[in-house]
Amino acid sequence: MNLPAEVTGATVCAFHRECLGLSGWPRVAPELPADSVWHWIAVNHRNNSLLWDEEDLARRTQAADSEITANKRAIDRYNQTRNDATERVDEFLLLSLGLIDPSSIGTDQPRSTVPPGARLNSETAGSMIDRLSILSLKVRAMEAQTTRTDVDQAHRDASIARLERLREQRDDLAGCLDQLFADCRAGRAWFKVYRQFKMYNDPRFNPVLVAERRAQQSGQQQ
2 lies in a domain? Predict the structure, then answer.
């Protein structure tokens, strides 16, 4: 893949589309250098794509309970990796904008370097890119609805209208991402790396998993 030189709303949307068109995606992903923000944008996008497929499978009504359980556990894994990648995207972008102390990258409390008077943006650039990834999946899925031959024209017409709205939402969000970058470079805005701390995925914090481990240890001691 030819990686864009700059992260913008347009280049992110184009990158998402290109990934969706790759042979084998999302089971097979392009090998990109891990020291590139595009690697982490791809990791985020790939896990959103894997999540999308698993979410469809998890809603089957004629599958065995064990299969749905496997889907749910896969969803947890993909969601965790997706969130981790979003945080890495934020770190790379903040570093390129000069808004983070490089020595604090990867820690639980990344230290921001904030210009005086800049406003804190409530949403991070990485979260916006994550949303653009999901919108690209929605656009692709709705495009498929517009060409179905097993439905009536009313279904296709409704899908066309929804597709246009989804494209509008994607374009609006891409423009907001560009505006955030412009404001950050001008010293008018900044954003933080927000750690998600998904407790349900961590056996040290999930109270149910903690109770299970204690019960297992108690049984072994008897």
Answer: no
117 conformational bin, left if phi > 0, alpha if psi -120 to 50, beta if neither:
left
The single residue listed with the structure tokens 């470079």 is 185
35-68 b/e with 16+ CB inside 10 Å = b? eebbbbbbbbbbbbbbbbbbeeebeeeeeeeeee
- Residue 211 pLDDT greater than 80, yes or no: no
Domain that holds residue 27: 9-221
Is this structure's pTM higher than 0.70?
Answer: yes
Torsions phi, psi for 107 (to 5 deg)? -90, 170
* Number of domain units in the chain: 1
| Residue corresponding to tokens 């929804």 | 162
Helix, coil or strand: residue 119:
strand
Asked if the structure places residue 89 within a domain, the reply is yes
Which pLDDT does position 35 carry in this prediction? 92
- The residue among 213 and 50 whose pLDDT is bigger is 50
